[in-house]
Amino acid sequence: MKRKIETVGIVIKPHAPNIESILRDLMQNLEKRRIGCLLEDVAARKLLLKDGLPREELPARVDLMIVLGGDGTLLSIAHLAAQSHVPVLGVNLGRLGFLTEVPTDEIYITLDSFIQGKNGVLSPRRLLEARCRGKTYYCLNDVVINKGAVARMIQIGIWIDDKEIAALKADGLIVATPTGSTGYSLSAQGPIVQPYVPALVLAPICPHTLSFRPMIISLNSRIRIQLLTAGEEVYLTLDGQRGISLGKNDVVEIEKAAFELSLISSPKRNYFDLLKEKLGWAATP
Amino acid sequence: MKRKIETVGIVIKPHAPNIESILRDLMQNLEKRRIGCLLEDVAARKLLLKDGLPREELPARVDLMIVLGGDGTLLSIAHLAAQSHVPVLGVNLGRLGFLTEVPTDEIYITLDSFIQGKNGVLSPRRLLEARCRGKTYYCLNDVVINKGAVARMIQIGIWIDDKEIAALKADGLIVATPTGSTGYSLSAQGPIVQPYVPALVLAPICPHTLSFRPMIISLNSRIRIQLLTAGEEVYLTLDGQRGISLGKNDVVEIEKAAFELSLISSPKRNYFDLLKEKLGWAATP
Amino acid sequence: MKRKIETVGIVIKPHAPNIESILRDLMQNLEKRRIGCLLEDVAARKLLLKDGLPREELPARVDLMIVLGGDGTLLSIAHLAAQSHVPVLGVNLGRLGFLTEVPTDEIYITLDSFIQGKNGVLSPRRLLEARCRGKTYYCLNDVVINKGAVARMIQIGIWIDDKEIAALKADGLIVATPTGSTGYSLSAQGPIVQPYVPALVLAPICPHTLSFRPMIISLNSRIRIQLLTAGEEVYLTLDGQRGISLGKNDVVEIEKAAFELSLISSPKRNYFDLLKEKLGWAATP
Amino acid sequence: MKRKIETVGIVIKPHAPNIESILRDLMQNLEKRRIGCLLEDVAARKLLLKDGLPREELPARVDLMIVLGGDGTLLSIAHLAAQSHVPVLGVNLGRLGFLTEVPTDEIYITLDSFIQGKNGVLSPRRLLEARCRGKTYYCLNDVVINKGAVARMIQIGIWIDDKEIAALKADGLIVATPTGSTGYSLSAQGPIVQPYVPALVLAPICPHTLSFRPMIISLNSRIRIQLLTAGEEVYLTLDGQRGISLGKNDVVEIEKAAFELSLISSPKRNYFDLLKEKLGWAATP
Predict the structure, then answer these.
(1) Set of chain D residues whose Cβ sits within 8 Å of the Cβ of A210
(2) How many CB pairs below 8 Å do chains A and B form together?
(3) Rounded to whole angstroms, how far apart are CA atoms C214 and C211?
(4) 3-class state of residue D145 by DSSP
(5) What is the reported pTM?
(6) What's the complex ipTM?
(7) What is the pLDDT of residues C250-269, one digit of tens each?
(8) Which chains touch D (3 or more CB pairs under 8 A)?
(9) Which residue of A111, B15, B205, C200 has the fewest C-beta atoms within 10 A of its own C-beta?
(10) Is C71 a catalytic residue?
């Protein structure tokens, strides 16, 4: 069944090379397909247009978001797009990204596959909901508790479904979705998790207890984390983008979000192709 | 709802200390509860009884299996018990095991909780079905492809749902269930997976490609593994117990089994308590 | 040959339990041995004495330093003691430390072994000299370049003896002595290095490049590290105690210091005993 | 000072592509330089010559060994060349090797640099001496104790300089030289050790005790390893090439060999260039 796309929202990584011409080309192609488009402020200014909107306002007004940039750019609007049930197509302008895996020369084949209703290009992704100090945050990749650069090792209490797991001594703790498993979590020795496995990763950052290994727990878990250490600089970081200072006894509650992100991927590349290319795995002879 | 147990099958680790008196005590207690019991050969001989049965024949004839031994003893009958839909209670006679987590002084409280129909003591566990050279095997922990001690590094082709993942150069590959994640897979840097997460672990053993990290894939995956190397001694090992020699181009197909094991755990200890105790994790102060 | 000790300097961890009585007992015992002692300020105040000195001034005025505390307390004066060629005896008041490995009930047997000239209790330890922004620092454990909690991954150029090694993308980099190898470096997957091996550890913290593994290089290496990233909060941390903010292109030069620390260990415990106890390794049956 | 080379011994990897023409070209070039050459049997037969010698006999009769092949080919004669104090030039016919790092188009520049007495191309490498069951073996890379594919975890007692380290439960143990640190040891999480650091690596293979991490010990250590497990198939493997079956209580004693190997490397590539290229590390922008 064909998908009906009337308006596309476009966000960009401002300093990407050739961003103006790629943007202009994209707008012309959308016009040919009789699809309207809304640009974020910075993108509008690149083309000397006046009607740009703040990045955060786009998802609520469009049927599809296109990101021209890297994974960081996509992460900045992923949770908003998911909340608005708007799919996201991530175009990488440089190196292949885990989220922005569509190269510029596959934009239109991907877009058309999506419009024609092909299912292979839609990859649903779970999000995390994190609550801390009365506020709620949504993350596509990860929720991270991390000590500051000059702080000493911190201690973090971890409860899953109200059962105490451990009082971890470490630099920090990563709670990642399968999507986030190839991000920061991978650097911290976490495993690679296939996108739609209903599971979360708990990966300690530089754990003092050597037997505290990365864990995979049910997606339906309610995770409660409490900072047990006083007097050190500690932050909660959401998708590597938003940071909140934490104090002793502060609690972070994490569970799966009620909504998902529809990520659009190129019909020319499946998840394992992406892994092989990004991680340099050998193919069969 | 009460569970009806008429006959219990008992298997033992023959050389465990005090096995005779533990066995005699167990039989007397079962008799008090008007539960019959069948012993495996070696257990019957310990008590100078004549009517022992081969270990493999017990699961099909009883309502519950009790294992007096270690995790290895339990693994030897787990797949048979699962196929017969017979629950298993694992009693450790020495160190706490991941599968035999009931100490001797908690046998009866565990048994009674189970009979009284309490659900907290029942932990369902997935099994793997592995097919190789026309035969089918079932495993509670893991399916391992491993090179011999003097063999050189081998190369293994891996496909998931018919998509090629990689041609792994390594000592071997572990495919583990969540239950098996705390076994051999953990020694090979695999993550700890909470028991009923619908996922499998792929953990390379001493991978030559340093970026080939442990992976978590869907429980519903069809895994196909092919030995690409000729002339080296290579084995398929099932639950660390049964070994099959593999030759070049031999294929192993792995997916989840159609049945599960009902593992009985002590009401006094949850999964995370077990992890904390086995791995020496600190508790909150 | 007997060692001549006229004055001992004492530093303490102020909030350690029973610190007053341990301190009083130590002073009486030193008096019996006709050894004078100088206390740091905070220790003097604990005993309502007036002639305490700043911690940093002690090493230059004494023949031996005794630390009553944990490894952190010892690290705070280790480099000063080493510069003054004054040996250090580390007494742990709680858990066994890698540096403070003498328990209170072994203080006098250790002290007497040292005075009597026994060599087994002397463990020479190398230090690092780090130069940054015109200042020079000395470290017993490690020199760490680390990003702030909310900073993104940083990039660090590494040169050894003027040869470029890599432009590492990571959370940070640890340069550790053998002594420091059981500290932060171990949490970051670095190897354990026997104390007097003439080598340094380079251990990346959460490396983005999965093949960037911990390295062991010659103790005689000149290491040059340059922060290549702009706009992120990055710190140089010395022995986990002193922090210096770094900006883009800032350079840190590291090599072995011209002097060593004489660490005094208990005659009842060798290095491998310490490892076995701290890390929970099994002994032969 | 010029080095005097009268005779070169040549060993080959027989099935390498174009081996005949490379061999013929090498012989002509040596002739031009008035250097004689001795071929191993299989190389002589490739060129239909009759006077080949067994590979093992060559090092004692020549002034320089040239290996046309991969690291495995070089390892097969490295210990013999080292015993005879004959330098070895390793030419890779396919992928760059850690030992055979000279590509075919750099053979003569490397050879001439060596003959002209340039020191940059000489890289001295330590060897291990292993004694087991009355026999003595020499290894350039590593001595490995490893269980067979279907064997269960084994237990290995480790002593260093007569001090007990641990009774390791694992698949095995690797004792590697710095040269061997980029081989099997690296796959087992061991660190990379710069070639001439006077140290050895102890790397456990799939350790059951998660806190048993790779260790770096002094090159002057006397290592004693004893197999504590009975009834399992266990092998001692030397440089990945020679295997010896071990039984319960068998002892392997390892220390540095009394001689070193002179490995010749290309003047165009230093050790860190090699690491960067083999491991795919990024260079500074």
Answers:
(1) 210-211, 213
(2) 129
(3) 9
(4) strand
(5) 0.96
(6) 0.95
(7) 999 999 999 999 999 999 99
(8) A, B, C
(9) B15
(10) yes
